[in-house]
Structures are given as C-alpha cells and as structure tokens.
Amino acid sequence: MDVSNKRRKQKTTNQHKGEKMKTKKILALLSALALCPSINAATMNVSTSAMSLNNVQVDFKMDDQSSLAPIIGATRYSSGNDSATGLLVGVSYNRMFSQKIFEDGWSANWNGRYYSVKPSQGDSSTGYSVGVLAQKNWFWQNGFNINAGIGLQYLKLNIATIGLELSGILPDVGFNVGYVF
Fold this sequence. Notes:
By secondary structure, the chain is α+β, with helices and mostly antiparallel strands. The protein is 18% helix and 59% strand.
C-alpha cells in the first residue's frame, strides 16, 4: 500500500473517530441537562428512536398539553466501497389531543430536521425534512415511555457521489423509547 493510500485511510479513520467523539459529547451534555436539579420533575422527556438509535431528543414541557424538543443525531451509510457519515439537528413540537403532556394518549407531532452528509469521497451534501405524525403515547409510573406514530414528511436530500437522492413527500414512521424526568 503506498503512502497516499495509508494517509487517506488514516484521515478517514480519524474523521470517523472525531464524529463519534462529537456524538458522545452531545449525548453527555443532554444527559447532564436531564439530571440538572434546577429543572422541575416531570417537565422533561429524554427519548431516542428505537428503530435506529441514531438520534436523541429532549422534550421540554411548555404547558399542560404541549412540549418542544431539540433533536440531534448521527448516522452512517455504506454501499459497497462507498460510505457517508451524517449529522442531523432539528426541532419537534408535540401537542396532546385531550390529555396532559407526558400521559397516555394521542398526540400530534410537527418536526423539522436539517441534515449534513459527508461521503467518503467527494463534497458534503445537505438536506432537510419537515413532517407531521399522529402518535400514540404510553407512559408508566416509573418514567419509562414509548410512543409510536405514522405520518408524512417532505424530504430533500441528494448525495450524488453515492447515488442517493431523496426528494418529495414520503411516509414517516416513528417509534421512540424514553424516560420522563
């Protein structure tokens, strides 16, 4: 293996390690925030996607029937010899239909996400999605909770170097597990 290939491989490995460290730091920050004593009990829900475990959101209670959550995540895509890593940031708004926030029942979720994708070769790509889900929520007295939802999203993402192009209105499915603080 020549020197340039070794350097390229080392650079890719270092970039991947750096992205893992960023994700770990972000998760640690969100965990510290979740344990912060200045936040009143039962006013926050920390959850992750049970389907991919690649994002974390922290729902902050806004009033008796709604919450607002920042979303942050990371992912990796591979196809043959090509791969890409991605980061996402977003926001989610939940409105309960008839019950109080963080109680069993139905809710509507509006969300928006911004994606940044870096393929192993080529330029970075960005994209976004906006969507709405109808969700069923289950909360237990110990704080554990599950929500499942279906809906629609408009997604715009194009990564030409690996031939991935997503654009248009697509179905959206959500399945999260979490814990209420």
